[in-house]
Amino acid sequence: MFNDNVINRFRGLETPFYYYDLDLLRRTLAACSQASGKYGFHVHYAMKANFDGQVLKTIQSYGFGADCVSGNEVLTALKYGFDKNKVVFAGVGKSDKEIKASLDADIFCFNVESVQEMEVINELAAARGKKPRIAIRINPNVDAHTHHYITTGLDENKFGINTWQLNDVAEQLRKSANLEFIGIHFHVGSQITDMEVFKSLCMRINEIQTWFEDRGFTIKVLNAGGGLGVDYYSPDNNNVADFESYFKVFHDFLNVKPGQEVHFELGRVLVAQSSALVSRVLYVKNGQRKNFLVLDAGMTELIRPMLYQAYHQIDNLSRSPENVIDAVKYDVVGPICESTDCFRKDVELPQSYRGDIIAVRTAGAYGQVMASGYNLRDSIQSVYSE
Ligand code: LLP
Questions:
Q1: For 9, left (φ over 0), alpha (ψ -120 to 50), or beta?
Q2: Is the minimum distance from the CB of 191 to ligand 1 under 6 angstroms?
Q3: How remote is the CA of residue 49 from the centroid of ligand 1, in Å?
Q4: Beta-bridge partners for 87
Q5: Which residue's CA is minimally distant from atom 22 of ligand 1?
Q6: How many angstroms separate the alpha carbon of residue 186 from the centre of ligand 1?
Q7: Global pTM?
Q8: pLDDT digit string (tens) for 305-361?
Q9: Is the C or the N end of the chain the one with fewer CB within 10 Å?
Q10: Are 76 and 55 in contact (CB under 8 A)?
């Protein structure tokens, strides 16, 4: 990701910034397209992971659809040229305003998360003389074995409709003249690296599909959500995820009927490795028990370590890692007035100095999009590979 030319270019730039390696992004998208295309699977990009304009344009150019979780995401997807027939709108709390805007935009599908939401969409659609397609998001109670803050498919989570409510769903579907039921939707969590989780998900999808079919419903779309994880520990060795193995699990275990479409909503895995948060060391504080590197970026630019105890590789780009004879352990911290504003403790780095350029890696997913203006911080620029 970083060669000497890139690092030289960074020397002249104001920090912090998000750096995008668009070539790596393209290679990732190509790998995903190829692996999913092999089975005729459809991929919607979960744009909550990153909605930088350049990133969206690049993803759209590969023909991906968009998975949106707010009215503004729907409008932004359309603005960046995503085909409205490939835009889905998910989310546990869609407001009337957002539903109306999406009805007017004639998007492909609403992923509906409660019986009450079905009633509301049906009413709003009737008032507009529309008949939107909907998929029912079902909570399959599959444990994603990921951080509890990013697990979504357990009974205790707020997402989707629990299986014991399916009779109510069937009844509501029969009553909803203004809804076209096309499929079932699932998403069990994020940063999942264990393929067994996806295998268990396939088994649950098969069971639930049978439940609907036994009651006379036709399922056109099986949507398995997103969640495929990336390697935060070795971003250089594993910069493109193993899409082949991921899609093969669904090919092998999902009971796909003739004419049925299989959809996915991948976010993180498409964008995470292509970006780094680039920052400078403001101060080196040598304590008696601790050394601190105080950066000019903090939790306002990348909150994942502070919110989910997430690991991100940290590199000092100003010091060559090859001839480190003077490794020092630093707590790498930001400037924000919060003790939790620490990227990682005891990071082994070459002896570092004020002005050194530090890259916090794998920041492309849920980095920039989760930035905040806390402490009245500036919002920072994006820099793209040339
Ligand atoms: N579909 C639905 C319904 C989702 O809720 C999500 C993510 C995705 C797809 C995309 O999941 P992905 O492929 O990116 O794992 N901020 C957290 C992650 C939150 C994920 C929210 N939902 C983090 O930084 O780890």
A1: alpha
A2: yes
A3: 7
A4: 66
A5: 190
A6: 12
A7: 0.96
A8: 999 999 999 999 999 776 667 789 999 999 999 999 999 999 999 999 999 999 999
A9: C
A10: no
